[in-house]
Amino acid sequence: MKPNPQVLEVWGDFACFTRPELKVERFSYPIITPSAARGIFDAIFCKPNRDPARAQFRWQITCIEMLKPVAYIALRRNEVDSVASVANVKKWMSGSAEPHPLMVTQAQQRQTMALKDVRYRLTGEIRTFPGHEGRQQSLEAQFVRRATQGKCFHQPCFGCREFPAYFRYLNPEAKDEKPAPVDYSQDLGVMLYDVFDLRVPNDSSAQPFVSLFRAHIEKGVLQIPQYDSDQVLKPIDETKGQH
Predict the structure, then answer these.
(1) H or E segment at 137?
(2) Could you tell me which residues are beta bridge partners of residue 115?
């Protein structure tokens, strides 16, 4: 069954979609990346499962539209050199271990070139994994119900947790509630696509890797190629001789 497009309008005060080559002093792409857009859809509706054989679907982002002009802002943010262990926190919660303070030995102040006052229109599709093809309509209906009610498993964000993203569901067939994208065009060169292998179900044992694609914004619209296509650059699988 052909998937139906699902459309969200998302907005927020700040965003940072860090370019991988500028990781230390963070510098944002001028537009949201496909992986960050997928993260917003996942925050609203996903079916995570520890057993990859029971994973039901993934999100495929197909189009990103820029609804406000690009505007950068320089920020200084404090980053710590360590975080609390999840295992220790669970022990503290269960009472099996005494809580102890987390000592931050060194705080690092970093420069961030972030985006401000962002608004996008995101289009994505549910792609079912083998064995779940018959659930396409049911999964889409669940997403529409959750999105229209403003429900999410966790607060969506624009690249960093401190930059929350707000959303509303748009009916793909309603023309009157779709403002035109801004008149902005730019060749972004090679852009981050994702950091997981989207061809397989979510498997905690799978080795993550970076995939890239050549991105070009044309009049405020960034078309996203299919993850399985040759337009998406992936590491060479030496066991199969494939990318």
Answers:
(1) helix 136-148
(2) 15, 72
Question: Can you tell me which residue has the tokens 């497009």?
Answer: 5
Cα Dmax for the chain: 58
| pLDDT value of position 121 | 97
Sorted by where each starts, the structural domains of the chain and their CATH numbers stand as 6-78+110-233 (3.30.70.2660)
**Would residue 150 be called left, alpha or beta, if left means φ above 0 and alpha means ψ between -120 and 50 degrees?**
left
DSSP string, 166-233: EEEEE-TT-STT-PPPPS--EEEEEEEEESS-TTS---TTSPP--EEEEEEEETTEEE---TTSTTEE
Could you count the other beta carbons within 10 Å of the beta carbon of residue 152?
16
Q: Which helix (H) or strand (E) segment is 42 a member of?
A: helix 34-44
pTM value is 0.84
Q: How confident is the model at residue 140 (pLDDT cuts 50, 70, 90)?
A: very high
Cβ–Cβ under 8 Å, residues 12 and 118: yes
